[in-house]
Write a structure and sequence with these properties.
Layout: H1 5-21, H2 23-30, H3 36-53
Length: 72
């Protein structure tokens, strides 16, 4: 995510958290009875997927793997 992705992520998280409070709306849209505990966990599950897949790979430090030598 870019620097401006924070507010969008917050809105997406809040949207799915609000869906957990209205399971009747979800059932009307998907035409399937969805368990409320799944709807409650959905924002957190999506956050894990976004952080694992879309954030990108971490860049290690340039001196990674080199022993530290204290200067005198």
């Amino acid at each position: 995510m870019a620097a401006g992705g924070g507010p969008g992520g917050l809105l997406l998280f809040g949207f799915f958290q609000a869906l957990a409070n209205r399971p009747d709306v979800v059932e009307a849209v998907v035409q399937v009875k969805v368990p409320v505990p799944f709807l409650t966990a959905l924002p957190y599950i999506l956050t894990v997927f976004v952080l694992a897949g879309f954030v990108g790979k971490a860049i290690p430090p340039r001196a990674g793997g080199e022993p530290y030598v204290k200067e005198r």
